[in-house]
Amino acid sequence: MYVYSARLLAAMAAKGVKYKDLEALLGRKNSYITARMAGRMPFSMDDVHILQQALAIPWEEVGEYFPPSQAIHPTEE
Fold first, then answer.
1. 56 contacts: CB under 8 Å, gap ≥ 6
2. Any idea of the CA torsion for 13, 46, 30, 55, to the nearest 10 degrees?
3. How far apart are CA 13 and CA 41, in angstroms?
4. Measured by CB atoms within 10 angstroms of the end CB, which terminus of the chain is less buried, N or C?
5. pLDDT in tens, 27-62
6. Is the pLDDT confidence value at 76 over 50?
7. Can you tell me the distance from the alpha carbon of 47 to that of 62, in angstroms, rounded to the nearest whole number?
8. pLDDT band at 19 (very low <50, low <70, confident <90, very high)
């Protein structure tokens, strides 16, 4: 499992939210959701706001659920 989605998946499971529910919440297709859950693309701020509310994620913990892109794919030094 990708580190990016582990915490988000746990929050979804706790609320009984499935991928199909994310599609409806965000108004996006499965391929959009999958790319973001896999860490290939970042969620938009609008997505984060919608998911934060739907999953009752405290604002002070949002960064743990939606880390910066560099945290998903660190650059090699």
1. 15
2. 10
3. 22
4. C
5. 999 999 988 888 788 899 999 999 999 999 999 999
6. yes
7. 12
8. confident
Of the candidates 53, 59, 6, the residue with the CA atom closest to the CA atom of residue 25: 53
Query: In angstroms, how far apart are the furthest CA atoms of the chain?
Result: 40
Which residue has tokens 């499992």? 1
Q: Which backbone phi and psi does 6 adopt, to 5 degrees?
A: -60, -50
Token pair, residue 29, equals 């297709």
- For residue 20, CA distances in Å to 6, 23, 52 come to 18, 5, 17
Lookup: tokens for 34: 């999958």
Task: Give the helix, strand, coil percentages of the chain, each rounded to 5.
Answer: 65, 0, 35
Question: Quick one: which of 10, 26, 8 has its CA closest to 63?
Answer: 8
**Residue 5, pLDDT score:** 74
